[in-house]
Amino acid sequence: MLRYTFGLLSLLLSLLLTARESQAQEVLTLEEAVRVALERNYDIKLSANDERIAENNVSRGNAGMLPNVSANLTNNNTLQNSSQTRADGQVNEVSWGQGSSLNYGIGLNWTVFNGFAMFARYEQLQELEKLGETNLQLTILTRVGDVMSTFYELVQQQHQLRAYDTAISLSRLRVTTAQNRFEIGKAARLEVLNAQVDYNTDTTNLLRQQELYRNTQIRMNELMVRDVNIRFRVPDQLTIDEQLTLETLSAQAAQQNPSLKAAILNRRVAELDAKIVRASRLPVVGVNTGYNFNRNRSALGFSTLSTGNGLTYGVTASVPIFTGFNQRRNEQNANILINSAQLQFEQVNQNINAQLASAYQTYLTNISLVRLEENNQRIARQNLDITMEKYRLGSITTVEVRDAQLNYVNAAVRYSNAQYLAKLGEIALKEIAGTLTL
């Protein structure tokens, strides 16, 4: 009896310490969780880097519109034995004579026309920048959805922890009552043992739920890219938007879904790529100019030193006449890629509509289940209160008490699950529609 009382007091002290520690923990709001994740999440940072690269690539120089200017220097030296026979028969010879050639200057090359390919390329770079922005938007939307889902999973688990806490409190009362009844001879030892087994079972369930809750905390910390060992609580409020309609969501998805926008941009990029390929049929015209200095020195010859400097300029033009049918093949492939991009757009659109229809049906079902389980929980609580009052008066069996206790716990768990699933459905619908906000 003393050992049992000591164990009960130890558990009570442990629960009090846990509750005090819980009160001291950080209260993490959804707004703070999303803000930190947006600032630190690795996937968002990587996608932002890709978007910045696409932004940097939008330049006229990258599209080939601007000239290339380069400076050149060439300096060659020789050591050689030379022999020269002149027209009058005189022979001149030099052993290991030195010679040198020095050329340096600056030159400019500029393609001024290439069948409008440079303009198509510049427009394509702008579309690729938009595609980078859309991919970043998709990453942000996905990660914010992950944070919100995990946040409300923590809310659900806190609700379930309270249900298991209630079960343990009732089981502890049953153990105490059964022990007292046994000591005064009004109950058999079997009743005490049954109450103790139920108490241990409820304790196991609570420990498992605490483990699940802690693992979810770690996952949230990982999404926020902070110390995974940080412990925190979240507010218990869970509000569900019950006003969503499929028609509105479909219209929003057609305008704002990032995957659909990316498919449209990919089709536009393919069209511009075909335009660049077709430009290869037209002439390429370029201009060049430069200023050069040269000096040549030799040990033997009519002129041992010559120098020169001046301006050079010119025009180049080329027209493809026959390329082994490669031009036609490239244009055919470009048109096929346009068709593939169109098919991908239609596929994404079909997939989004299917996701919306399925998710919306699940959302409606979960909304109905929330109302049903809320009523079930209220009834189960009333039944439990009546049962416990009868148990205190000794007019009901322990089996009936346990049934009422389990009914309440199960009803509370089902209610929190229904709320969580309905909230997940709301988040999924808004994520597909591209309208996910806090």
From TrEMBL:
Pfam family for this entry, one: OEP
Record's signal peptide: 1-24
Main location: membrane
InterPro entries the record matches: OMP_efflux, TolC-like
Keywords carried by this UniProt record: Cell outer membrane, Membrane, Signal, Transmembrane, Transmembrane beta strand, Transport
Gene3D superfamilies: Outer membrane efflux proteins (OEP) (1.20.1600.10)
Cell compartments where the protein resides: Cell outer membrane
GO CC annotations on file: cell outer membrane; efflux pump complex
SUPFAM superfamilies: Outer membrane efflux proteins (OEP)
Statement: the UniProt record of this protein carries the keyword Transport: yes
The keyword Transport is assigned to this record: yes
GO molecular function per UniProt: efflux transmembrane transporter activity; porin activity
Family affiliation: Belongs to the outer membrane factor (OMF) (TC 1.B.17) family.
Protein name per the record: TolC family protein
